[in-house]
Amino acid sequence: MTIFRRDGYLALRGALDIDWVRSLKQVVRDVCQAQRLDVVRALAPLSSQASTQAWVECDASRWHDELHRHLAQGPLCDLIAHLTGSERVRHLGEQLFHKPPQSAAATPLHQDMPCSQSDGESVAVVWVPLDAVTHATGPMLYLPGSHRWSKRFGPREGNAKVTAILDRQVGLSADVCENDPRLVAMRALPGDVIVHDWRVLHGSGGNRSRSLPRRTLSVRFGY
Fold first, then answer.
1. Where are the domains of the chain?
2. Which of 63, 88, 89, 213 has the fewest Cβ atoms nearer than 10 Å?
3. By the 8 A CB rule, do 98 and 60 touch?
């Protein structure tokens, strides 16, 4: 918990039972095949030469009962309760990200807090990789300690305004640079989780792999 409070994120390697992850992956396949799948926000391609488009589906657990059961009653709630010491953990919602091979769509630096209808500071986001996340497929990138800033980066402000604030604060752009030494890249395998404070600045690169998909769940919990 000390590292989580200091940096705003924490990687827990092998924290999830791999059979549960396989079951979740099958549920996600069903979500993707369901007719109610609505692509609510196409991620802007990093390059005009990107051959495929990445997408995100928000809060599918509201209409997919099995996904709701996995997220609201599965091991993720227990993990957050143990990490935070809270006796009451609530599933608030989730996003399913899919970056197919050669979908060079980067996710700019942002906070999750302004993107949500929830409020308050006691919210943790559990990032669950369903595929191996490597340098080629787009690891998560974190700016340690940024959750303790007083700034808020709303989704409607756009990259230019976020970049202006970041430039004054630490000389960074909202457009991610995977080689910037101030950003910590977090590769992950199925069974790993990365927990972050929803105020910490984070983003990710595009999937430049020729053959490997990058499917992940980002699940919000109040505690």
1. 1-42+56-100+219-223
2. 88
3. no
Is 215:72 a contact under the CB 8 Å cutoff? no
User: Could you tell me if 207 and 54 are in contact, meaning their C-beta atoms sit under 8 angstroms apart?
Assistant: yes
Residues in the chain: 223
Beta strands in the chain (DSSP E): 9-12, 41-42, 55-58, 90-99, 107-110, 123-129, 140-142, 184-186, 193-197, 202-204, 214-222
Residue 157: strand pairing partners: none
Gap between the Cα atoms of 19 and 29, Å rounded: 15
Kindly report the backbone phi and psi dihedral angles of residue 19, in degrees, each rounded to the nearest multiple of 5, phi listed first: -65, -35
Residue 9, beta-bridge partner list: 196
Q: Tokens 């053959």 — which residue? A: 211
Give the tens place of pLDDT for each residue, 36-59: 544 444 444 444 444 567 888 889
d(CA 220, CA 202): 15
Other Cβ atoms less than 10 A from the Cβ of 177: the count is: 15
Tell me the pLDDT band of 132, cut-offs 50, 70 and 90.
very high
The pair of three-digit structure tokens given for residue 31, joined into one six-digit string: 């979500």
How wide is the angle at C-alpha 150 spanned by C-alphas 155 and 12, nearest 5°? 75
Alpha helix positions (H), 52-192? 65-73, 75-84, 158-170
Structural contact between residues 107 and 212, judged by C-beta atoms closer than 8 angstroms: no
